[in-house]
Structures are given as C-alpha cells and as structure tokens.
Amino acid sequence: MSRKLKSGLELVAIYAVFAFMAVIIIYPLVWAVGMSLNAGTSLYSSTIIPKEWSLVHYKWLFTDPNSNYLTWYKNSMIVSSVSAVVSVLATSLVAYAFSRYKFVGRTTGLYTFLILQMFPVMMAMVALYILLSLVGLLNTLSGLIIIYVGGQIPFNAWLVKGYLDTIPKDLDEAAKIDGAGHLTVFVKIVMPLAKPILGVIALTNFMGPLFDFILPSIILRSPEKYTLAVGLFNFVNDKFSNNFTRFSAGAILIAVPVSLVYLYLQKFLISGLTGGGTKG
Amino acid sequence: MSGLKEIPENKPDDDNTLSHSPKTAMILSIIFAGLGQLYNKRYVKGILFIIFEIAFIVCFGSFISTGLWGITTLGTIPGTDHSIFLLVYGIISIILIVFAIAFYVFNIFDARKQAKVIAEGHQLPKMMEAFRSSYDKSFPYLLTGPGLILLTFTVVFPLLFAVTLAFTNYDLYNSPPRHLVDWVGFDNFINLFTVPLWKNTFFSVFSWTIVWTLVATTCQIALGLFLALLANDKRVKFKKLIRTILILPWAVPGFVSILVFAAMFNDQFGTINRNILIPLFGGNGLPWLTDPLYTRILLIMLQTWLAYPFLFALFSGVLQSISDEWYEAAEIDGATRWQKFKNITLPHVLFATAPLLIIQYTGNFNNFNIIYLLNNGGPAVSGQSAGGTDILISWVYKLTFEMNNYSIAAAISLIIGLFVSIFAIFQFRRTRSFREEGQI
Questions:
Q1: I need a labelling partner for B313 at 20 to 30 A (CA). Which of A167, B37, B236, B358 fits?
Q2: pTM of this prediction?
Q3: A117 Cβ partners below 8 Å, 6+ apart?
C-alpha cells in the first residue's frame, strides 16, 4: 500500500469518526426541537418531524394564565446575575488576601478550603433548610443566593488564588512604592490583570444556579418563586400531567441563548481555567 | 513588623516605663478584654475591646447557655423541647465561642506584646501611626472577613450539623417536636456495617459508585483525548466547524440534555426503541430504564456524551502548545506513532491537566444530577433500600427526603466526604502547584 493511499484512508476514517459523533450529538438536539413543535402533549403521539406543526406550547408558556414561565425566567435571571456578581466580589477579595498577604491562619485556611469543597452539598441540605427557616429566608430568592455565594467560595478561591499567584508581585510592590494603598493596588492593578479568571467565575456562577434544581426545589415552596430549572423539571416530573412537549418548548427558550453564550466564550473559559488550575 | 515606631536613640519618657510589666498587662487582659490595653495606655483600643466583650456577653450570653445545654441533652421534655433546633443552637453557640476565644487570645497576646515594647523603653506611636499600622496588619482579615463569615454559615455550619446528626437517632419515628432525639454514639455506623439490610445495600451501592466513577470518568477523558488528537491532525480540514459541533454537548445545559435523553430512552415511548432499535432489529427494544444493567450502561454512555467536550477543549489547547520540535526529534530517531504518543503527547497532556482530571473523578463520584434526573436511581431492586443505579449521594438524598432517615443519611455522607477528601488530598499533594502553597 502506498503511503499516499494509507494517509487517504486514515483521513477517511477520521472524518467517519467525526460524522458519527456529529450524528449522536445533533440527533437528540434536533429531536428535542421537533418535540416542542408537536401539537399534542404525549410522548407517544409526537414525532421528530411533527405531523402537525404547531407553536401551541410556546404560546401556552407566554400567554396562558396558568403559566408562570415568565416569572420563573425573571427569578432565574435575578438569582443567577446576583450570585455571579456577588461571588466574583467575595471570591476575589478572599483569593487576593490568600495570594498576597502573610497572616495568621493562611495555610490552615487554604487546607480547610480544600477539604470543605470535597464534602457533598447534599450533606448540608437539611441544615441549610433549618438555618433559612430560622432566619426567615425560606422560600425567598435572597436565601438561595446567599447559599450559592457562600458555597462556591472554597473551590473558586483556590482557582482565583492560583491565577493571582501567576501575576508578578513586582507590579504591586512598584505601585506601593509609588504610594498606592492596599485597596488601590487591588482594584487598579491586580483585578484588571485577573479579568480572565474572574470572567470564568462569573460565568460558572451564572450558569450553576440557572440549572441547579435540587437546592431551589427544597428551598422554594411556591410556584411563583420557582426558578426555571425547578419549574421545567415539574413539567416532566409530574406523574399526572407529564408534559414533555411543553418542557421541551420551555427548555429550548433557555438552552438556545445559553448555548450561544457558551460557544462564544468557550476559548476564553478554557484559557482562564488552564491559567489558574493547571500549573501542573 | 512591630506596630510601634522604634526610635532607639530616644530615652524612656520617665522611670515608669521600665517598671511596665508585660505580665501585668497579660493578666489584666485575661481578667477582662481591653484592661491590658488600658494599662498600656492604648485607650481607644482598650475601650473598644471592653465594649466588644460586654456586647458579646449581653447579646449571646443566654443564647449560648441554652445552646450548650441543648447540644448536650438534646432536650428533656418531649413535645416541648425541639431536639433539632436545640442541636442547631448548640452548634451556632460553639461557632460563636470559637470566634470569641480567637478574639480573646488575640487580645491577650496583643496586650503582652505592647507592654513588652513599652518596657523596653520605646516611645508610644502617635495615634494616626498606630491606626495606620493596625490597618496594614488587619487588611488581609478585612478582605477575607465577609467571605469567611458567609462560608461559616453556609458551609461550615451545615457540615457540622450533618456530622452531629450522624451520631443521633433522628429519623421518621424519632422526629421532633413529638419525640426527642438522642445521642447514640457510633450506632449508625455499626448498623450500616452489621445489619444485613443496610450492609447489603451499602456494599452494592458503594461498589457501583466506584465502578461508575472509574468507568464513566475514564471514558469521558479517553474520548475527549481521542477526539482532540484527531481534530489536531494537520490533514483535517473544516477544523472550526468540527470543533464547534464537538463542543455542543457542553454548551447545551446538562439539565436539559439529561431530561431529553430520559425521554428518548423511555422503554415504551422513547424514540430509541420505537424508531431505531425495533425497526432495525425487531423485538421489543431494550429495557433501558427498567433493567439495572442497561440503565447503568446508558448512564455511562450519557455521562461520556455530556462531559467529553470540556476535556476535548482542554486537551486541544494543550496539544497546540506542544512544540513541533519534540515530534521532529522523535521522527529523526525513527519513533513510531504510538511511541510518540506515549512518550511525548501523553506526559505533556497529563502534566498540564492533572488537577482538573482529579476534579473530574471526584465530581463524578458525587454526580447526583445525572443519576437523579435520568431515572431517579431506579429501577427499584428488591431487598435493598436503594435503586439499582443509585450512587452513594443519590441514596443519601432518598434516605433524607423520601424516607426521612436523617441519621443514617448523615452517617453515609460523612463516609463519602472522608473518602473523597482522602483521595483528593493524596492526589493534590503530588501536584506541583499544591506543594508551593506554603510560600508567598
């Protein structure tokens, strides 16, 4: 077999692998879109290419008086954006202290963070429920946000600290000699250089709460307080009115924008992660 | 660095400074926070400390005494004392006491240090300088303070609560306010390993958790690496399109994908059986969600589908950063493709991504979402209290929220936490970034 032929066959095999992957990636996605355009509600009568094209489920989400879809969408946006902003603030302050200052408890703190993030969140659910009911934050979005922000600190503080460690300390020392105070160095010098990793933190803390359903389903009790994930999950989880086609319509309306954002930001996300987490 | 400005040529102000005793300052501060500081003539600090201590005692005194009584007895009168709230008060009291002790120790050492400096005859710094230096010293605490307080209540407190629950008999039959909960020592752990029902369930769930973690994670890493290698091949065209398609499963929210797959693989109505398997092969399709073995296979395939794109993107970045010179040198030496992969590519990739790969394993160990969303840990298996595909964490969920067996659930989650921490610390210690953490 000539070298050229062998290379050609190899190339065909490589493309065949990609084609196979493309099918198993795209089929479920197209299928979900197809489902949402079926008129009926049952899985059995629906087909990937609808026999009866219809936007009835989309219309229901927006116009039916029983639909809380827009409220859920709003709730999710509030929870996600506030968690993202507050998480970036809290985490960067903590990470900056651990990266730049020597203080009593520094090493212990780092080890504690590492261990804390290993314990499953599930373990904390009962306690969080009781704690929130004690302070009257049960069934509120703020209670949910506080838990998200607090819970992400151990893992993300490590990530950001790792990234900050790679920013040369000469820069802040030079600024200090020029008379800059602690806060000025932090805000004007270190933070702008840490933008990539802060972007990663903001993104993951936006997306995490957006599709988390277990914590909100324990904390949020009334349907008008639900976030999207809880509401959508109830469409398919309800034993008596299982409504997959409606679920797919609702899910597509959130999944499409989120996917576009991810596709656009993925390079940035990976470079942020490898800058901080993969020093080897 | 000392908070006092040291001016050696300065003579002591008067004879009193020489008789200034660090011991007296310390004893005064032990008697009541701030007294030592007053003795050191640091009036503002001293008064602040005194106010702190009085405020703490006034605000939390009775709460802490109730809490400590509560956590030791867990209540004495059924129907009136709510054991779980008492336990919560007790834990919060202990956290408050720890904060108070830390403050008190700081107060004592601060008094001693300053008294020493004064006794050595150094001049007291001016007010502004004292403020400046204490601002410098406390800056890292100001930075970490808000985050740490939040962390204490949302992470540390719940974990302590769960740990204590593991040593009680809190379950459906022993639930307040009607009944009291009692401390039972290690009974839950002993039951877990000796009572046949618990023992069998625990070991079957545990072994599936291990298989699941190892197989699913290794599959996703292997597929990610394989596709990254293919997409990195110089002969391949349309790279951008191929990358975008391959990354799609990462971009689509996992929550949505899993629920879509659950519907697609539905035994009777799902498209996989109805439109693909039955028309092609006949028969009745495969029992994807009703036979534990098939559900397990499905879970591993799904997890691979969901998680390989992240690793693909990660590995693609690393592969592009490996210098061509390595491969050219290897080619001159006549290395085969496999040798090049084994000796150049793999070490580079693993070295650069080790911590993130470890996180993949620990993440899957506790990957609650996919198990719960696909089939709620089912199908049910007779003779055990967990479903056929339940991993430890989803079993904990069932025990807590469906069977209200809080204490056993807490005991299992404690085992999970210890297991994962030991594994992760052992692995992290071997990576370079961890070993450097001690230094600034």
A1: A167
A2: 0.84
A3: A154, A155, A158
